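Reply to dn_fold:

You asked what the input looked like. This is it:
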Amino acid sequence: MSASEITPTKCLRDEHEIILGMIDCFEPALTQAESGEISNEDLLSFLDFFRGFADMCHHCKEEDQLFPTLEKQGIPRNGGPIGVMLQEHSVARRLTQSMSEKLDAHIAGDATAMEYFIDQGRQYIDLMRGHIGKENPILFGMADQVVHGEALDSLTKAYEEAASGDDYCETMKRCMATADRFLEIYNVQRADCQPPN
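and this is what came back:
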């Protein structure tokens, strides 16, 4: 990527497409779960992706690198889009934690747990589609307007540093393999569903 193509949100927008691709796979997977046509192992793999890729690798990059940079450029945390995004990240974490607990209960023999898992999964789908639908044009649009020069250079280096950690690299590799598998199984194609650079 040339210097002129670098923006404060390019890598995050690309990751959004991968997340949305997996959301598009998770939706029919939940329909399969209603009739027991999907394995517990596959459902566990979806949760591992949402917790590993969407939260650990992606949301934390926003929270630890992008959002503080935006605050330094004068965009307030409270009373604006940053605060809304952070609140929705918290809801997403609660939903994935609850889904994990319900799936564990289902595996342990709780006959009612799958119904709750499916309901929470659909809430997660709605949340993430709405979240990305707001974040891309609003907050990322603001970021692309105000982060440039030295601030952009610093942010780009911070992204690279975050992506160089062993835990990050291992999680990214595992989650991208999961995404590749499910995108093929469910025949989901999104323009930018490629591993981030």
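The chain has one domain: 7-185.
Hope that clears it up.
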